[in-house]
Amino acid sequence: MTEIPEHLLNRSKARRAEASGQASSDASPAVQASATPAAATPATPAVPSQPKPVAPDPAYVVAAKTRKKIPFWAMSALSLLPLWAFMYLWALTPEDKVVEGPRSIGAAVYAGCSGCHGAAGQGGAGQVLHEGEVMKTFPHIEDMLNFVYVGSQSFVSEGLPTYGDPNREGGAHKPLGYNGNVMPAQGPTAGGGLSEAQILAVACHIRYDLSGADPASEEWASEYAEWCSPESEIFKALEEGSANFNNIDEVFNMLEKKPIKVGTTARLGSSK
């Protein structure tokens, strides 16, 4: 036999009591319309996720993090290192030798002569000037100054057979004797474009830089000191205009080795 649930029995008793107008003293309180819901199943507490293990830094990273840092005050000193390096290299760089006086001016003037005579005096359309050739032809600088001033055509016009040392053996020292080419006049009154100071300067450059005369040798020391050194009074007088090729022998006749008159017209050279 099937057992009737108790709450159904209590509900039936209550209805009968209401129908008879009597309250049942032992009746159980009416069951609320809505039954007490069954207890909810407690939620399972969330398990916090475990953080992923962090891989240890490599040894070089650890070393970088733990090594001592450069003090901020040292940065100013480090910033000066490029300047120090520049000054150090500059101090070690040898200075270019600068030749002062007539020779340096003459080197610039010679740029206009190199087209015929060669940059090193090796010759070409013009006479050979290197390896002592000039000194053999012109043992006296005054004779060279005269020839450069008036040019070779003036010697031909005057009927002069040679320029420079008339006793030189070998070598070209006859007017138009080198390839038949003319040496143009350089002096202003002969139609040239150089001043007398420039002519002396280029002669000094040719003699002591190209032809190889030694300014310290016994043979050429006196000439160099008087005519071609940075302290040359003759060169300064020509620059200032207080002397010229026509009176230089008179202006400087007090020198131990008196100058020969240079002149501005063609003349025979002097023997040694």
Task: Please identify, by name, the CATH architecture of the domain at 102-251.
Answer: Orthogonal Bundle
Q: What value does the Rg take, in angstroms?
A: 59 Å
Spans where pLDDT lies below 50 across 5 or more residues? 23-38
Largest sheet: none
The proportion of residues forming helix, as a percent range, comes to 40-55%
Order of helices and strands: HHHHHHHHHHHHH
Q: Can you tell me the CATH class of the domain at 102-251?
A: Mainly Alpha
Strand content: under 5%
What is the average of the pLDDT values? 83
Count of alpha/pi helices: 13
What is CATH's topology name of the domain at 102-251?
Cytochrome Bc1 Complex, Chain D, domain 2
Question: What spatial form do the alpha-carbon principal axes imply?
Answer: rod-shaped
The N- to C-terminal Cα distance equals 170 Å
Quantity of strands, as a count: 0
